[in-house]
Design goal:
alpha/beta; Aspartate Aminotransferase, domain 2; Aspartate Aminotransferase, domain 1; 2 domains; 7-stranded mixed sheet; 3-stranded antiparallel sheet; 13 helices; about 40% helix; binds pyridoxal-5'-phosphate; dTDP-4-amino-4,6-dideoxygalactose transaminase; pyridoxal phosphate binding; PyrdxlP-dep_Trfase_small
């Protein structure tokens, strides 16, 4: 009898009871807008920013309406405007090129390695064509950040990090999002903390922080922030920076705060699940796994493996066979994007580019979510199913 998996790949954990209680408080007093405060009250949004600044060691933090909004605000604050080229990973999620396109700027895609990170040799070649690098740590894979920061310094690139999949992760002890000018995080349901929608921005630069706060729609109420620069910094800018409303509200902040304090514990739980899958799939015929260097303190909320140079029919068949046994897998090689698997060639708002190394990687890239509602035993079962199906396809070919 072959085994089947019955778990749900999109079911996240419940919000902690503390978060539910804090949310009920906000609902009962009704002051959901971040600047709607009672006398002497510190709002949940401002407190969340203070908590997250402390967690990442950043001087300033701003909570916003979504991760994608945060990317746009970061780009705009660094002075990106219409027609400007912005370097970014060819392997990323659509909100990244979308945030660039929303400013009338042009995504300039950089190749992807077999370890699923930005190709630093290609970045070096393209660096002269842009002023900003929006580095996306897609699916939690972190490039050699010493090399990235050195390259950015040498080429005069401003580094913005997209940490949608690396909240709580680090490179050689430096928190992800703290290597460049601005770190951007998402608090959307499928990321590392869950408020449905939401985003966080961190920076040590007072001018950038003030610009992002003004952009987010602070209505001259920026003095109600707790992780913001002093008001003199705003006075210089407040009439120059447009209001592009994208604030977070107190309800979301209330449910996020207790999740932040559990982040380290959750990271460990995710990584134990990742290691169980990795151990189960290791050595399956024709399969390679991204190398994870010692310096990479990752948080594995998803799992990827590669079947390089397989014919597309074989890759599609693996997806179908795994799916029939309850293992819901995404494949980045499909002709047409499915759910979250669109790739750079599908983004017609960006100028077409030839990226043969990325094409080869994406054509063989499989992706699974690892919600914390799965146990380690679930992950071992998923790995057994995948290995059996991969071996069955290999035997048939032989
Ligand atoms: C989710 C995500 C974002 C931000 O997305 P929102 O849905 O706008 O919060 C940015 N980059 C990557 C790689 C993502 O996966």
């Amino acid at each position: 009898m072959s085994e089947t998996f019955h778990g749900n790949f999109t079911q996240q954990e419940a919000i902690p009871e503390e978060g539910i209680a804090a949310a009920l408080d906000v609902l009962r007093h009704g002051r959901l807008h971040r600047y709607n405060l009672a006398e002497g009250e510190l709002g949940e949004t401002a407190l969340l920013e203070q908590d997250f600044a402390a967690l990442t060691g950043a001087r300033y933090c701003l909570a916003v309406a979504s991760g994608g909004y945060g990317l746009g605000a970061a780009l705009r604050a660094t002075g990106v405007g219409p027609g400007d080229a912005v370097l970014t990973n060819a392997f990323t999620l659509a909100p990244v090129p979308g945030a660039i396109a929303a400013l009338g700027a042009r995504p300039l895609f950089v190749e992807t390695t077999e370890d699923l990170v930005i190709d630093l040799d290609d970045l070096e070649v393209k660096a002269a064509d842009a002023r900003v690098l929006m580095l996306s740590h897609m699916r939690g894979h972190i490039a050699d950040m010493e090399r990235v920061t050195e390259l950015c310094r040498a080429k005069g690139l401003t580094l913005i990090e997209d940490c949608a999949h690396t909240m709580g992760a680090h490179w050689n002890g430096v928190p992800s999002g703290r290597h460049g000018a601005i770190g951007c995080y998402s608090t959307q349901t499928y990321k590392h903390v869950n408020s449905g929608e939401g985003g966080l921005l961190v920076t040590d630069d007072a001018d950038l922080a003030a610009r992002m706060i003004l952009l987010s729609g602070s209505y001259m109420l920026y003095e109600r922030h707790l992780a913001a620069p002093p008001k003199e910094v705003f006075e210089e800018l407040r009439l120059d920076v447009p209001n592009v409303s994208g604030r977070m509200d107190n309800l979301r902040a209330a449910i996020l705060r207790p999740q932040l304090s559990r982040l380290a514990e959750r990271a460990e739980a995710w990584n134990a699940r990742y290691r169980a899958l990795e151990a189960g799939i290791w050595g399956a015929p024709g399969i390679s796994l991204p190398h994870r260097p010692d310096a990479e303190g990752f948080v594995a909320s998803s799992f990827q493996f590669l079947a390089l140079d397989w014919p597309p029919e074989k890759a599609a068949e693996l997806v179908a066979r795994a799916g029939a046994r309850g293992v819901e897998m995404k494949w980045f090689g499909a002709e047409d994007p499915v759910a979250f698997t669109s790739r750079y060639a599908h983004w017609r708002y960006a100028a077409p580019m030839a990226l043969p190394r990325t094409d080869r990687v994406l054509a063989g890239l499989f992706d699974l979510r690892l919600p914390l509602t799965f146990s380690e035993e679930d992950c071992r079962l998923i790995a057994r199913i995948l290995r059996e199906e991969i071996e069955a396809l290999a035997d048939r070919a032989a």
